[in-house]
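Case study: RNA-binding protein.
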Amino acid sequence: MLKGKQKRFLRAKAHHLNPIFQVGKGGVNENMVQQIADVLEARELIKVSVLQNCEEDRDTVAEQLSSGARAELVQVIGNTIVLYKESKENKQIELPR
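Here is what the predicted structure looks like once written out:
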């Protein structure tokens, strides 16, 4: 679990990122979760945007993505979800203690 200080640090780092994935009408599926897990391994911190036509609410989508990809949910702001997962091979982000 992330501490408050760590979440603030990650939110600041994520601020300038653009969403890589979009969740639309189809909602969350296994293929998407797998792709997100792969990208998290490479980048550690990503944004996912929830489109207007998505049938599930953003909090449900955030929960499904974070549990499916075994990632930490940093924040949900507007229709954007920020996810973090420490990379095994490619560690770039050093979290404050």
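For the exam, be able to explain this: Residues 48 and 83 are 8 Å apart (CA to CA).
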